[in-house]
Amino acid sequence: MIILDLEWNRGYDKKPIDEILQIGAVKIDRLGGPIVDSFNAYIKPVIHAKMDVGARKLPQLDDYRELGTTFPRAMKAFRAWCGEETEFASWGGDDRRAIEQNCKYYRLPILEMPTFHDLQRAYCHAVGADGQQVALWRAVDYHGIPDIYDYHDALCDAMYTALVCRCLLPEDLAWKPVKVKRGRRNITFSSQPFPKQPRRRIGPFASAADGASDRAARKPVCPLCGEVSSVSRWSYDSKCKPGQQVYYAPFRCDNHGYFLTRITMSQGEDGQWWGRVTVPSLSEETVRQYTHIQRCEELVCKAAPGTRRRRRHRRGKNKKATEE
Ligand SMILES: [Zn+2]
Question: For 189, which DSSP code?
Fold first, then answer.
């Protein structure tokens, strides 16, 4: 198995490429086995004029600039080193995408990686942290592996990955997350007529989603008795017309059953978003629109109960926002 790691720079321009600056890799006979060979290539940055925040902190940045070769040359050497190997792995799934992207950019054939394991996913499964993205340095720390080498040097990270993943079993590699089906509860809405409800104005917000996540939008009241309810997820259709977004969510009153609440967000000329929140009458038209939107996207409010806020610790890392 080849465990690889890359460092790259996204830059700040419009060229849609994560320019690879280093390819690091180690070969192992099997998970848990010793490292039998290693590969390292520095690549001189030539695509983006500027280094992004993460890339500026890469420990080998000067080496890429001074000792780096071209991506096509590095890739040629890497292919030769990989030989007939068919099993590849990396910490997270981004490296594979970045290699493909860079190969395409240089019109090189894609590196065949018939089997590719996301070791971060397998590791998180093994330690009972399914669905989380444990950072490599945390895993190294957890296992008491001495961190005497630089993180974010691709070769060192590949080596750390091999060491951390010694504990993995074949079933950890084979594990795949179960895709959670979006709930399509069949809700029976209240059939009692109610007076036309006011449309409250909310805003301004930087985005439509900010408006939907705002407290002011998430507390609909029963149109019959005024009981305050709460909403934590909205359905919406991202293919709405530009500058407009409509969100729907069902809510429940303990006395009167289910109703719908709706936010209509519109973007002003200054780019800010304003919204109108209401409890629409449950006309056929409203229910038809909701039924359509319910099959589209779901927005989980930022501070909704049961969702965790993720803090991003940027320990001088490039790339992997995934390495959280
Ligand atoms: Zn009520």
Answer: B
Identify whether 229 is part of a domain.
yes
Cα end-to-end span (Å), the chain: 25
**302: CA distance to ligand 1 center in Å?**
27
Q: What pTM value is reported for the model?
A: 0.59
- How confident is the model at residue 184, as a pLDDT? 56
Do 243 and 206 have their domain in common? yes
Q: Residue 149 and residue 60: Cα distance in Å, rounded? A: 12
Co-location of 72 and 108 in the same domain: yes
CA of 257 to the centre of ligand 1 (A): 7
Lowest-pLDDT range of 16-20, 114-118, 162-166, 268-272: 268-272
* Rounded Cα–Cα distance for residues 119 and 121 (Å): 5
- At 260, the amino acid letter reads L
How far does the centroid of ligand 1 lie from the alpha carbon of residue 185, in Å? 21
Q: Running DSSP on this structure, what letter comes out for residue 214?
A: S
Q: How far is the CA of 238 from the centre of ligand 1 (A)?
A: 31
Domain check: are 143 and 238 in the same one? Answer: no
Same domain, 276 and 231: yes
Q: Which of 159, 174, 189 is the last residue of a domain?
A: 174
- Residue 228 alpha carbon to ligand 1 centre in Å: 9
Say yes or no: 169 and 38 in one domain. yes
Separation of CA 196 and ligand 1 centre (Å): 15
Domain that holds residue 146: 2-174
